Amino acid sequence: MSPLKFEIHKELENGLGRVGTIHTSHGDIQTPAFVAVGTKGTVKSLTPEQVRDSGVQTIIANTYHLYLEPGDENIKKMGGLHKAMNWQGPLMTDSGGFQVFSLGAAYGKNGVSKISHGKTEELILPEFNDAEVPKIAKIDPNGVMFRDHSKGDAHYFTPEKSIDIQHNLGADIIFAFDECTSPHESLHYQKEALERTHRWAKRSLEYHKSKPNAETQALFGIVQGGRDETLRKESAEFIGALDFDGFGIGGSFDKEDMDKAVQWCNEILPKEKPRHLLGIGEPEDLFMAVENGCDLFDCVAPTRIARNGGVYTKEGKINILNQKFREDQSPLDSECGCYACKNFSRSYIAHLFHAKEMLGSTLLSIHNIYFIAHMVDGMREAILNNNFDKYKKDFLSRYYNF
Question: Active-site residues: which are they?
Fold first, then answer.
């Protein structure tokens, strides 16, 4: 019996988007859905109840970080990640593959992210060079050697090791081990990395299927290929032909044509299985993802910008640290129904940040994940009501003021 069932209820007339339900042993996910990031088994500054009450259905945790602290064996002794973090809903864990990028090609470098913004991007901090900031992830054909970013200890991940860790964590949806490449890598390297990711995908799947966990945990394969159309389509064909329960779309993108890369993948991947876009979360990107057939997506942005005073509103982003909000008695967003907006003013939350009180980050995090989760809920309703294009146009024109 499959550990996951996916139903499609309605599809966009002009596009790959759809509304569906993912059934897991810890409950259903109504798609499309925003997935909150709980890197170390917690969505930063929030209780599980606050996350749930903000409209989030699912959380994704980080395999690499939980392996280092407190250790996957310890989490297994706690009764698994669901019990340890007191989350009753569906859970996901990534494979550790993103750390191949973040601790390798991107380590110690400024502006290197999985999304390229063109030639204006600085690659290296002025005070560093590659000799001074050695990469702490080293790849070989069989796996990756990581050095603990805080302690310096060496650890070796193979596809089998990644799956073992994720089995111990016990999430409902787990991912095959892959290599997430930098958008600045050469085409030659992208090809080499893609072949390695495909080999690791087969090994991840074979190992997972050999264990009893395959009956309770769904395994998603990850499509890579960078910004190259041929590689993206080749990867979608290869990964889509394997017996995964669903698929992730990972790796590097060009901001200007990310929609095309996602479309290339989803036109090929099996329609009857769910698709997750990894690490993408800006409003315009989420509309693009839904329109082009993604059912799930995660991003740290809502809580990360919240901790620095960033606020999503229907009129665009604001920063609560700006002086003009010190005496503003209105809510963060007058149309928002979250706990923060119903109970506190901009002035009070600005005070919390200026006073360096932790509650400020909590309130903005509650608001931001509520904002994104309900924005995506609006996309779901718009598809069901046959007015997705209007919803998208109205929302983005107001948010970006055009």
Answer: 94, 298
